[in-house]
Amino acid sequence: MFQVTQERPGDKPNIEKLLDKSFGTDRLQTRVAYALRSDVSPLPELCFVMRGPSFLCASIRYWPVLIDGQQPCLLLGPLAVGQAWRGGGLGKILLGHSLARAKILGHGAVLVIGDPDYYEPFGFAAALADNLTLPRPVDPGRFQGCELIPGSLAGLSGPVTPVA
Length: 164
What we know:
This protein is α+β, with helices and mostly antiparallel strands. The protein has one domain: Aminopeptidase (3-Layer(aba) Sandwich), CATH 3.40.630. It is built from five helices and eight strands; from the N terminus they run βαααβββαβαβββ. Strands 1, 2, 3, 4, 5, 6, 7 and 8 form an eight-stranded mixed beta sheet that branches. Strand 2 and strand 3 form a beta hairpin.
C-alpha cells in the first residue's frame, strides 16, 4: 500500500537519487526549469512524496516564480516516479493531491514544462502560457499553465523568473 505524505527533511537524499535516475545527473545544467529553481527553495507545504512500507517511490515539488516580475505563480516540478512503479498511476495521484492542496492554500495558477498528454487532463493548457517566456526555449506545447482560480492567468504576459 502506498501513502501520500508531506516531504520530510530526511527524504532529500532519496529524492535526489530518484531525480538522478529519472532526469539524469546533469539535469541542473540542462533543464530549463532548473534555471527557475536555482537559489530558491521549494514550497514545503506543496512538496509531497509517495511512500511504500519502507521506501520512497515518487516525489513532487512546487516552486515560487513571478510573471513579469510581479505576479506570483507556482512552478510544478519535478514530478518523478521510480522506474519500478511507473505506469501505476502514482504520479497522477501525487499531481491531483498537490494541485488540490495548492488550490486550498489560495494559489491562483501553476506552470509546468512537461508532456501535454500527461498534464492536460489536470487542466493544463499550452494556450494559458502563450504570452509567457522562459529563460530558454522549450519544445512547442510543453510549457503549460493551469488556472486554479479561473482567470488567474488571463491577460498576463512577460518573463517567468525566480522569486528573489
